Amino acid sequence: MLGVGGTRRKLGRDALRGGDRSGRNSGGPDPLAEKRELLRKLQERRREQRQQEEATDEKTS
What we know:
This protein is mainly α.
């Protein structure tokens, strides 16, 4: 009964040790992409805060 149910994908050494995250057996989102996204969100928030502060400064001046 070998081979019933489809073929198995042979895992390379990298995949077995947690590498090859872009493959089928990914362990989650790419850590670098996640970091970039967090950085982008942080920069957006800071930019919005600065704009709000500048707007309130102009109103009080």
